[in-house]
């Protein structure tokens, strides 16, 4: 299929990035620029016209710091940072490939800590980058897509984003089929959303799971550090 625009899928960690990556790769396998650690494919390498860049983990400032193609389109997906933290905790502790030394060190630390202490550790050391990405795009003129809305309205949202906004040449029938094929239950070997497998990258596939893991101490510390951002993002009044 032809891609007339250069497309950037901007997001932060644990906001459904691999879900969207699978959909884009299946639709346009020859036009995907594979993500690299530290966003080297975006921040350090020349950008390719007519290609799709999934899972670009960058702030607004980083995005506009590079030489962008004239015909680019972008869409931005965010997630409740509380669920982001819980998902990150289980991913780093059990399922994520150890692609760098920092992940290896965090996993070793988490194996020696309680869940509460592990969440507090990652809140201080891992979550700030996702928070910074989210913060940089909030209160701009950008339309932000919530992961939580995607869970319930994936067809509607992705039709609007990929066909209407990004002008990708996809038939509605093809997009519907690819979205259905890549929903949680299909990629989790028939396990429905909400049924947890801590060793799987598709761990649970639901929103609001933070309530099952946040202790009063974690809530207190989280709100002190990120309460304002939760409010700005519309997740808390």
> Structural class from helices and strands?
alpha/beta
Strand order of the largest sheet: 2-1-3-4
| Poorly predicted spans | none
Mean pLDDT: 90
Please compute the radius of gyration using only Cα atoms.
18 Å
Distance between the termini: 44 Å
Largest sheet entry: 4 strands, parallel
Order of helices and strands: EHHEHEHHHHEHHHH
% residues in beta strands = 5-15%
Number of strands: 4
Helix content: 40-55%
Describe the structure.
- The structure is a single chain.
- The model has no long low-confidence stretch (mean pLDDT 90).
- This protein has eleven helices and four strands.
- It is globular.
- It is of the alpha/beta class.
- The longest helix has 19 residues, at 147-165.
- The chain has a four-stranded parallel sheet, sandwiched between helices.
Short structural summary:
The protein is of the alpha/beta class. The chain has 11 helices and 4 strands.
List keywords for this structure.
about 240 residues; alpha/beta; 4 strands; about 10% strand; about 50% helix
Topology:
Blueprint: E1 6-11, H1 17-27, H2 40-43, E2 52-56, H3 60-63, E3 72-78, H4 81-95, H5 101-110, H6 115-125, H7 127-137, E4 144-146, H8 147-165, H9 172-181, H10 184-187, H11 216-232
Parallel strand pairs: 1-2, 1-3, 3-4
Helix pairs in contact: 4-5, 4-6, 6-11, 8-9
């Amino acid at each position: 299929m032809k891609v007339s625009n250069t497309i950037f899928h901007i997001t932060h960690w644990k906001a459904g990035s691999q879900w969207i990556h699978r959909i884009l790769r299946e639709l346009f396998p020859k036009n995907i620029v594979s993500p690299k650690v530290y966003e080297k494919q975006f921040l350090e390498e020349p950008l390719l016209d007519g290609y799709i860049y999934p899972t670009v983990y960058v702030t607004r400032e980083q995005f506009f710091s590079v030489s962008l193609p004239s015909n680019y389109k972008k869409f931005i997906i965010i997630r409740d940072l509380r669920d982001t933290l819980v998902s990150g905790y289980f991913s780093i502790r059990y399922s994520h490939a150890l692609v760098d030394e920092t992940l290896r060190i965090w996993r070793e630390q988490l194996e020696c800590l309680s869940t509460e202490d592990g969440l507090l550790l990652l809140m201080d050391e891992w979550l700030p980058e996702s928070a910074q990405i989210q913060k940089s795009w909030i209160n701009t003129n950008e339309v932000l897509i919530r992961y939580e809305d995607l869970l319930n309205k994936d067809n509607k949202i992705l039709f609007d984003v990929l066909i209407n906004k990004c002008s990708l040449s996809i038939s509605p029938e093809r997009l519907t089929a690819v979205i259905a094929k890549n929903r949680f239950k299909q990629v989790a070997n028939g396990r429905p959303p909400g049924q947890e497998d801590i060793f799987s990258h598709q761990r649970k596939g639901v929103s609001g799971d933070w309530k099952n893991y946040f202790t009063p101490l974690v809530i207190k510390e989280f709100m002190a550090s990120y309460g304002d951002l939760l409010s700005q993002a519309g997740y808390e009044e």
